[in-house]
Design goal:
Blueprint: H1 3-12, H2 21-27, H3 68-80, E1 85-89, H4 92-100, E2 108-112, H5 117-127, E3 133-137, H6 142-148, E4 153-159, H7 171-181, E5 184-188, H8 193-196, E6 206-210, E7 224-228, H9 231-244, H10 250-260, H11 263-282, E8 287-291, H12 301-307, E9 314-319, H13 322-331, E10 336-337, E11 347-349, H14 361-366, E12 373-377, H15 383-394
Helix pairs in contact: 2-3, 3-10, 4-5, 13-15
The structure holds pyridoxal-5'-phosphate.
Pyridoxal-5'-phosphate binds next to helix 4 and helix 5.
């Protein structure tokens, strides 16, 4: 068992934990499947596993509980996040929903006031029905988090940077509050991935991912993850995972393993292009504000630099009028007007009508999610082509066609 992996590690002269991140993206994982030397992880397309004898098991019984392909992916991601265990789900929302199963009626959770729309819907429509209450606060101010703690508070749920306003929360500062008060700290790390940010190292207890985004990276697969360090918490989550059953299939686990091999290369290139696009947007008279943590005038630029290795490739911007925003959406050609983010294909969204449509209007407007705000996920196309596409769109006629000069 594990011959191929041992050779890689011997050649590097290192234990797995000391390998560089980009090497781990390729060679991390459980390798428990590895009896043939297969360089690509096999897809164990089996729902169940035969027992060698009474009371005996190969280590696998039934794929809802564990499957060798998924196990490899989970070990891979646990290693990348510096966790001890990771659980793979059929979507990001399945992962967040499962985390909510840790709480009981009467429990109170403090959450970032600019969270993903689906998470907001889960909290206020399902978890609230189950007797869990929420306070939404601006978690980029740790004092507000501390002030919101009540005797019933059990956890703090943070997204950083937030979607779509790109607000950054100081994870270590919030972790000091949660540690002192005995609360769980959950951090949604979808936007930056462990390549740029490792919340467990900063004091978080549970890291959440929509693997549909950068980890999957190709806009073709839904998936989600929870990653933890504490073995007792991992045990509780494992019990819930096998009980609820929203686990990732063997084939989709394999797609994720394949994608993660290129995670570091994709993140670097997408970030480089995002910074170029952000800088270009700032020069445009039709653009009033650009929200990107990699710009030095971003309000949490210093915190972002301190706790991350990079700012990622998500940005949002406010146009001068709603007409300009709609014109851009109609006229872009290389960039596609579609939900989701993090993939090779650049995507633009209108948060007001899409991801945040279920959030009450007053709450949405107060956060800056207006009819002039667009969110852009910068993909792997050439930055020049993305900028040219936006330039053409922003100067196009009202119907999205090229403006006729008179
Ligand atoms: C997309 C997303 C989710 C939900 O993930 P799905 O894979 O779409 O279920 C959760 N959090 C963030 C930050 C996201 O972007």
């Amino acid at each position: 068992m594990g011959l191929a992996r041992r050779c890689v590690l011997c050649a590097a002269g290192k234990g797995e934990s000391t390998l560089e991140f980009q090497t781990l993206c390729i060679h991390g994982g459980s390798k428990k499947y590895d009896v043939t030397g297969a360089v690509s992880v096999p897809i164990f397309q089996s729902a169940t596993f035969a027992h060698p004898g009474v009371g005996e098991s190969t280590g696998y019984d039934y794929s809802r509980q564990q499957n060798p392909t998924r196990e490899h992916l989970e070990a891979l991601l646990a290693g990348l996040e510096n966790g001890t265990d990771a659980l793979a789900f059929s979507s990001g929302m399945a992962a967040v929903s499962l985390a909510m199963e840790l709480f009981a009626p009467g429990d109170h959770i403090i959450a970032s006031d600019d969270i993903y729309g689906g998470t907001h819907r889960l909290f206020f429509h399902l978890s609230a029905k189950n007797g869990v209450t929420f306070s939404l606060v601006n978690t980029s101010d740790p004092a507000r988090v501390e002030a919101a703690v009540t005797p019933r508070t059990k956890a703090v749920f943070v997204e950083t940077p937030t979607n779509p306003m790109m607000q950054v929360t100081d994870i270590a500062a919030v972790a000091r509050v949660t540690r002192a008060q005995g609360l769980l700290l959950l951090v949604d790390n979808t936007f930056l991935t462990p390549y740029f940010q490792k919340p467990l190292d900063l004091g978080a207890d549970i890291v959440i991912h929509s693997g549909t985004k950068y980890l999957g990276g190709h806009n073709d697969t839904l998936s989600g993850f929870l990653v933890v360090r504490d073995p007792a918490l991992a045990g509780r989550l494992r019990f819930l995972h096998k009980t609820v059953g929203a686990c990732l299939s063997p084939f989709e686990s394999w797609l994720l393993i394949r994608s993660i091999k290129t995670l570091s290369v994709r993140m670097e290139r997408q970030q480089e292009s995002a910074l170029r696009v952000a800088r270009w947007l700032r020069t445009r008279p039709e653009v009033e504000a650009v929200h990107y943590p990699g710009l030095p005038d971003h309000p949490q630029y210093e915190i972002s630099r301190r706790q991350t290795r990079g700012s990622g490739a998500m940005l949002s911007f406010a146009t001068d009028t709603a007409e300009t925003a709609e014109r851009i959406l109609r006229a872009v050609r290389v960039i596609q007007y579609a939900e989701s983010l993090g993939g090779a294909e650049s995507l633009i969204t209108y948060p007001m009508l899409q991801t945040h449509a279920d959030i009450p209007e007053a709450e949405r407007e107060a956060k800056g999610i207006t009819n002039r705000l667009l969110r852009l996920s910068v993909g792997l196309e050439a930055a020049e082509d993305l900028i040219a596409d936006l330039e053409r769109a922003v100067t196009s006629g009202p119907d999205g066609g090229d403006r006729v000069k008179t």
